[in-house]
Specification:
single chain, mainly alpha, elongated, 4 helices, binds protoporphyrin IX containing FE
């Protein structure tokens, strides 16, 4: 069997934390309409409980993302690869800002737009992460 290296740990933590961030939003999005219908008060509790898991995961995503950038030596990579990293990090920033708007916003527009953009940009960050993986 192949032996794990520091790169394996770095990518494992980055992918694990990003799975919690992206997958958690998908699962919560599926649960909330059923919860709201059965127990109208429960959605707030569910959202708060999710936040206590998702935000620490996002911190790990950013910390391991910085570790990725330091480790791969961006200046030695192709322009296409660098542009993809830029788009990947931009999408990661947008998903964080959108999720913050969703959880702090009080208007229906902030909730809906923040939630939808938070998930879409998270999915796009995941996709561009995999482009980086296949392009390295
Ligand atoms: C929600 C946000 C994010 C998601 C979903 C995400 C997801 C991913 C995924 C799936 C990969 C491919 C891992 C692999 O090679 O198997 C990846 C790679 C990468 N990510 Fe992210 N990421 C996010 C945020 C960030 C941030 C904030 C940074 C930088 C500060 C970053 C920097 C990188 C870099 C440089 C790579 C290439 C690593 C390598 O090939 O060694 N990511 N990301």
């Amino acid at each position: 069997m192949l032996s794990p290296t520091a790169d394996t740990i770095r990518l494992f933590l980055h992918v694990l934390a990003s799975s919690v961030w992206v997958g958690g939003q998908i699962v919560l999005g599926g649960l909330v309409p059923r919860l709201r219908a059965a127990f109208p008060e429960s959605t707030k509790v569910a959202a708060q409980a999710f936040g206590r898991i998702a935000w620490p995961a996002f911190v790990v995503v950013v910390a391991t993302g910085i570790w990725n950038i330091v480790d791969i030596g961006v200046s030695d990579t192709s322009t296409d690869y660098q542009v993809t990293i830029f788009v990947h990090v931009l999408l990661a920033a947008l998903t964080g800002v959108s999720a913050a708007v969703h959880s702090l916003g009080r208007s229906k527009l902030a909730l809906a737009l923040g939630g939808a953009l938070g998930l879409l940009t998270a999915l796009a960050a995941l996709f561009t992460g995999l482009l980086l993986q296949s392009g390295s």
